[in-house]
Design brief:
Pfam families: Adenine_glyco. This is DNA-3-methyladenine glycosylase I. InterPro entries: Adenine_glyco, DNA-3mA_glycosylase, DNA_glycosylase. By secondary structure, the protein is mostly helical. It has a single domain, classed as Hypothetical protein, domain 2 (Endonuclease III, domain 1, Orthogonal Bundle). Helix content is about 55%, strand content about 0%. The chain has ten helices and two strands; from the N terminus they run αααααααβααβα. Strands 1-2 form a two-stranded parallel sheet.
């Protein structure tokens, strides 16, 4: 029997590896959740394959998105980021990453952890969808609207509803692997 993946994962080896090993798996590690939140913001207006191609350079430039380091980036460091051709050179996205690192600590003070904050919206269990085609998969939902609004109230930037929904998909809060995805859907369905 041949393996069938979600159609978006057929475009490149990088996307296939991401699909097979990360996308949709529940993540509860605060560092990984924060990293994905920033990466989803970096992706806004671009393709995820662009982020995957630049992943090593992004992680290197942003100190692996460790909030305790990123929160200390000053103007000189941010200026160096904007001159780094290996990453996404968008001033608003750079500023948002540093801002969000600072807001991360306030959010943790208020909610205990980013993990608790995010996963409380789904009662700690992934939402399991049963989409047949990629066209059925929404770009955002009322739940991602709600989380986006609260993140903005908490002072976060680049956390629109579409970005938040992409985050929810990537960290497994919602399982949007197509029902025909024999590679991942049956496994994640059991969670």
């Amino acid at each position: 029997m041949s393996i069938k993946r979600c159609s978006w994962a057929d475009k490149s080896k990088l996307e296939q590896e991401y699909h097979d090993n990360k996308w949709g798996r529940p993540v509860h590690d605060d560092h990984e959740l924060f990293k994905m939140l920033i990466l989803e913001g970096q992706q806004a207006g671009l393709s995820w394959s662009t982020i995957l191609k630049k992943m090593d350079a992004l992680c290197d430039a942003y100190d692996d998105f460790r909030p305790e380091k990123l929160a200390l980036f000053d103007e000189a460091k941010m200026k160096r980021l904007l001159s780094n051709s290996g990453i996404i050179r968008n001033r608003l996205k750079v500023n948002a990453a540093v801002n969000n690192a600072k807001m991360y600590f306030k959010l943790c003070d208020n909610y205990g952890s980013l993990d608790h904050f995010l996963w409380s919206y789904v009662d700690g269990r992934p939402i399991l969808n049963h989409w047949e085609t990629m066209q059925e998969v929404p770009a955002n939902t009322p739940l991602s609207d709600e989380i986006s609004i609260q993140l903005k109230k908490e002072g976060f930037k680049f956390v629109g509803s579409t970005i938040v929904y992409s985050l929810m998909q990537s960290v497994g809060m919602v399982n949007d692997h197509l029902a025909s995805c024999s590679f991942r859907f049956p496994e994640l369905k059991k969670l």
